[in-house]
Each structure stands twice: as C-alpha cells, then as structure tokens.
Amino acid sequence: MNPGDSALPASHPPTNERHSYMVSMGRTKELSKAIRDKTVEGHKAGKGYKTLSKELDLPVSTVGSIIRKWKAYGTTVNLPRPGQPFKVSSRAEARLV
C-alpha cells in the first residue's frame, strides 16, 4: 500500500481521524407495534429470519430479538424498563410549557 492509500473503500472519503469509522451508534427509536406484529406473523408463517429481515428492512439481529421477546412474553408491546423514572423539577417543567 502507498502512504496515501486508505484501507476504506472508495465510497468512504478519507478523514483525519484515524478510527472515525468505528464510532459507536446512538440509540434508535423503538419499532412500531405494527412492524413487530408483521415480524411475528411472518415467523408464524414459517419464514426465516433472513427473509423477514429483507422484507421488513430490519437487521437479522432485530428480527431475532423481536421473536425471542414474543416467545418469552407472548406479546409484542413495548415492555416497561427497570429503573427509576427521571424527575423533572418545577423549574424545568415550567420551561417545557
């Protein structure tokens, strides 16, 4: 490799930061109940994870997570998360209004 060559494909422009392509992803929005229901219905119909992934444009791991939660809890609704809810002070609440 020449000093100017990059290990990244041509579609990635070169950057000054050495490992900028390894930045972690942020949290994403929750999937709608309709998408989760379509995933479970496809699974019940005998479709594979890869097939469902391509049809619904979701990662295979997401399809697997949806089906795993459905098998464990029997529902596709968003389950409550552990932890104490955030407290909003009256001052902060006034700014929200």
From TrEMBL:
Transmembrane segments: none
Domain Sleeping Beauty transposase HTH: residue ranges: 25-76
UniProt-annotated stretches for the region Disordered: 1-30
Residues in the signal sequence: none
Pfam families documented for this protein: HTH_SB
InterPro entries (UniProt xref): Homeodomain-like_sf (IPR009057), HTH_SB (IPR057667), WH-like_DNA-bd_sf (IPR036388)
The protein, known as: Sleeping Beauty transposase HTH domain-containing protein
Biological source species: Electrophorus voltai
